[in-house]
Amino acid sequence: MTNFIVILLIILSLVLLRFKHKDIFNKLKSIVFIIIVVFMVFFIVLYPKEIIDAAHNGIILWANVVLPSLLPFFIGAEVLVGLGVVKFIGVLIEPLIRPIFNVPGEASFVFAMSITSGYPMGVKLTANLRKNKTISKSEAQRIISFCSTSGPLFMIGSVAIGMFNNASIGPYIILAHYLSAITVGIIFKFIYIDSTPKNFNKCDGKNIFKKAIEEMLKEKQNDGRTIGKLLGDSVKEAISTLVLVGGMIVTFSVITEELYLIGFFNYIMSAIKFVTYNTISIPKGIIEAMLTGIIEITMGCKIASEALLIQPTTQITLATMIISWSGLSIHAQSASLLNGTDINMNSYMISKLLHSIISGIYVLFILKLTNFNYTPLDKEAFFHIINRSVKYTWADNLIFASSMFIVIFIVLLIISILLGLSKRK
């Protein structure tokens, strides 16, 4: 117990220094970071097999799932932005999206790509738009608050089928996840207010397509690159970003494994029991899922799905909240992608915290409203699904992701054109 008291006192002291003596706090933060790195290296030497296995699992996850799933979106989005097509869509959709979120029409493209491909696509596109000065800082903060989401394939394939053994859970998680993202976007509309409000593209209905084409050509002219140069730069930028994402995945796989090896989560659970004096009875599965989910999304959801002595609705709610929070691993990826912009990372993390809380409320309400009855698939049916999913190769994932990108782009383009036509009436 003494160790827990010492840890709590250290944390309290750091918090006080953060507000009272920022210079001392920054120096201590650097020292603590160095100590953490030294301990990480020490545990790599102490547990080489376990750490190598964790790193290997991270690399396999990145190479087989993340790389083929995100590569078409990264390349395609870069090309469309450079060609000015995103600007064309933005001008047509802005009259619809501006009143809701107070953001430019380009946010519709960011949101569509985010909900299709998942983390960290929305952050990547928002950072690019801000670097190109297409959007203001306040607009970037508002966009990133609701355009950083998980993809449906992860929520249905990995979580609902792979962890809960029931695909019917997927729609509940998806609905709550995206509804809460939209809710957070509306909330941030009233938080980040431009000091000099930016009027959206106002033009009479007859000239809206002309305006959109003019803006697209202007964007392409400002970019100045030939098609070949644009495509080459897009591939290089996509590969560079994916390598960065892969590095973060491997790093946090190792960190999570090290925390398990040193019994960090057991210490925290004991500390929680000590602080509450056992007056609040929180099942071990809930605490373990939350602690793991704070760091890494996949393991957090897995532990939530396997938690004992917990109601199924609680398990699903926990998994939904973890998905919306996304984990420090995704936050680290986002921080790297936002490097070089003036987008506030603290504000982004607050939006993810709100996203997590609101999604938990939504999914619990929807489950209660529909009287959802959790019935896992029998083992034979479950393993049949798993065996089918294993047959998908790297090329299959790449082709599927490419098809998804093309379909979403075409749908978004059609919607924007229909909206433009409606303005002419």
TrEMBL record:
Q: What is this protein called?
A: Sporulation integral membrane protein YlbJ
Task: Establish whether keyword Membrane is in the entry.
Answer: yes
Reply yes or no: does the keyword Transferase apply: no
Top-rank lineage group of the source organism: Bacteria
* Transmembrane regions: 28-47, 59-83, 103-122, 143-163, 169-192, 238-255, 261-280, 353-370, 398-421
Domain (Nucleoside transporter/FeoB GTPase Gate) ranges: 65-155
Q: Which Pfam families match?
A: Gate
Keywords attached to this Swiss-Prot or TrEMBL record, sorted alphabetically, are:
Membrane, Transmembrane, Transmembrane helix
